[in-house]
Design goal:
alpha+beta; capsid protein of prophage fold; five-stranded mixed beta sheet; 9 helices; 27% helix
Length: 364
């Protein structure tokens, strides 16, 4: 038998948060990008926005004084993390179950609390995923005045802009060096491997980061399957034929990891599914195991660890725990008499090298 405080202790509820699996598609954003890279107190932090130098050092006569170099391309960016905080009231009938002296009844009550807690805290995991979907496809994250995530700028009151240059979007005029996607991938004769090769060359010259991941919309496999250059590639790589027959893109193609992003969505406040990857979109990313170009900053929030009313302010402060990232706790309330659960998150995904991300429309 457990006391109601033991059942509702914040560590128990936090355990539910930690065990959550994503309710949105979790096979699109690489798993490493859902793990924090930096933690800060509260909701304010900074990150370094880098463009990297492609210059070389100057030579001097041997034994001569050194020459002064002014470093460029690194900016310290202050940011406010987005903060979510909501609560639900559990069924009032749970309270007598949790206080019951019958072990079976109490266990059932605890299981119901855990199930409802899991469903509730799923919202905050979903927000993290959807925020990444937005960052990678729009280069921005939008919220309306009520704090609802938006899939476009329409109605946005808050905009988080990662500064991906216009030349890294649509037909990819990278650094003004000329449009790369001059011919549509929907045309069978388009030399798609050549376009990707030019992109890799331009990306390496622009930032030093090689595109390693390609997250694509629903039309891309069909374009590639009917492409003349792709058919020649498959003749030389017969092991890749099965992937193409299954409607996928083989990872051996262009030496990239290809991920189907067509099912990246979230359910908005009105109950409508909002998808992020356009049918003709390919988002090219560097290797996500290289944390130089991206990050996930977690802030912190003070949560109570005791469901009982404290005797004084000192005791109340002593009962608080500073929790990084997602948090959850529950307590008994008296109007109505029930168990109320709170949950939230303080977080921000970042693209610290915006020049390294390419959001392509392959059908000009």
């Amino acid at each position: 038998m457990k006391t109601i405080e033991q059942i509702l202790h914040y560590k128990n509820i936090m355990g539910v948060v930690d065990a959550i699996k994503g309710g949105l598609p979790t096979d699109i954003v690489p798993a490493r990008m859902l793990q924090p890279t930096k933690r800060v107190p509260g909701n304010k932090g900074t990150y370094y926005k880098r463009t990297s130098t492609r210059k070389v050092a100057r030579t001097v006569k041997y034994g001569a004084p050194s020459t002064l170099r002014s470093m460029e391309g690194i900016a310290d960016v202050p940011v406010n993390l987005f903060h979510s905080y909501e609560h639900i009231n559990h069924d009032p009938n749970l309270l007598p179950m949790l206080k019951s002296l019958d072990g079976g009844t109490q266990k059932l009550g605890a299981e119901i609390v855990a199930k409802e807690a899991a469903d509730f805290t799923q919202l905050f995991h979903n927000l993290r995923l959807a925020a990444w979907f937005s960052a990678l496809t729009l280069g921005k994250i939008y919220f309306d005045g009520d704090g609802n995530l938006l899939s476009s700028s329409s109605g946005a009151v808050v905009t988080i802009d990662f500064g991906i240059p216009d030349g890294n979007k649509d037909q990819l005029n990278v650094a003004g060096n000329g449009t790369i996607i001059t011919d549509s991938w929907a045309t069978a004769s388009t030399d798609i491997p050549k376009q990707i090769s030019v992109l890799i060359k331009q990306a390496m010259a622009f930032t030093g980061y090689r595109p390693k991941y390609a997250i694509y919309g629903s039309n891309i496999p069909d374009y590639l399957a009917s492409n003349t250059s792709m058919k020649e590639f498959l003749k030389m790589h017969p092991a890749s034929n099965e992937a193409v027959r299954n409607g996928d893109v083989p990872n051996s193609f262009a030496k990239m990891t290809w991920i189907d992003g067509s099912h990246a969505f979230y359910n908005d406040n009105d109950g409508n599914n909002k998808f992020f990857w356009d049918d003709d979109m390919v988002v090219f990313l560097p290797d996500p195991t290289d944390m130089g170009w991206w990050g996930l900053i977690e802030g912190s929030y003070a949560v109570p660890t005791n469901i009982n009313i404290q005797t004084n302010a000192t005791a109340a402060l002593a009962s608080l725990a500073n929790v990084s990232g997602m948090f959850s706790y529950a307590k008994v309330v008296d109007d109505p008499v029930t168990v109320r659960q709170y949950a939230g998150d303080t977080v921000l995904p970042i693209i610290s090298v915006p020049n390294s991300v390419f959001i392509a429309d392959v059908t000009p």
